[in-house]
Amino acid sequence: MRNLRRVLENMGNAVLELVWAKQVRCQGCGDLSGADEAYLCGVCAHRLEELRPPESQRCLGCGNPVEARCICKRMPHVAFSRFAFYYQGPVRGIVRNLKYHAVTCMADWMAAAMYEILLREDWLEDVHALVPVPMPPKRMKTRGYNQAQLLTNALAEQTGLPVLDLLERTRETPQQARLSSAQRRENMRGAFRAKVDARGLCLLLIDDVRTTGATLEACAAALRQASASQVYALTFAAVSRPVEGKD
Q: Is 173:188 a contact under the CB 8 Å cutoff?
């Protein structure tokens, strides 16, 4: 009954998108006073600019700024990882609205920000195809869509790159939200496999948020096992806290 209620709620939200412009509500903070064409109120739009990662003074592998801990060792099978925004403030609202409230119209807008990263990093000449991080079947049935797939499809339209359905889940995994970093890595270990051979391909993994990198690493490991030459990763947001206070 709970799953049916969630499906019906998402269907209702999807229909609402067609009849009620999302500009009425800020997708960052939920404010009803209105939003501009970028789906955000003025305050959130200004805050969003402050949440872009620096183009310099960062790790060239994982993209984390110098004041945060490098996580390259946690993702040995990911050649490079980048993200468009820090997962803070209005970025949380944007992601949650896409992920849990069926505001799927945000996917194109989010993908545009990710496309800017691809251009900046000059990856388009290297990458052969885009690969979305797959969702567990039970969660897919409940939610009705995979936000990573929506972002990937939108990026494919902007880049002209093909989307390859290469990965599948080997088992259902608990949601990562309340797990520690070590628990996330164990939770994702061996959770994916490649459906077909990926020999010689440079692939770009797409997801909405990079937290500890455990999911991206598990996906990349499966693709490398299928003989992919390299795996890059791109997310809309990333949790990237300062070194102080981290365990």
A: yes
Query: Which residues have a Cβ under 8 Å from the Cβ of 36 and sit 6 or more positions away?
Result: 23, 42, 45
Q: Is 54 exposed, middle or buried (0-12, 13-18, 19+ CB in 10 A)?
A: exposed
How many CA atoms within 13 Å lie on the side-chain side of 197? 2
> Is 50 within 8 Å of 61 (Cβ atoms)?
no
Q: Report the alpha-carbon distance of residue 230 to residue 241 in Å, rounded.
A: 27
CA-CA distance, 237 to 126, in Å (whole number)? 22
- At position 208, the amino acid (one-letter code) is D
pLDDT tier at 246, thresholds 50, 70, 90: very low
Question: In the sheet where 202-210 sits, what is the strand order?
Answer: 80-86, 230-238, 202-210, 129-132
Q: What angle do CA 217, 133, 237 make, to 5 degrees?
A: 80
Exposed, middle or buried: residue 228 (CB in 10 Å: 0-12, 13-18, 19+)? buried
Please write the tens of the pLDDT for every residue from 23-36.
568 899 988 765 66
Strands of the chain (E only): list them: 80-86, 129-132, 167-169, 192-194, 202-210, 230-238
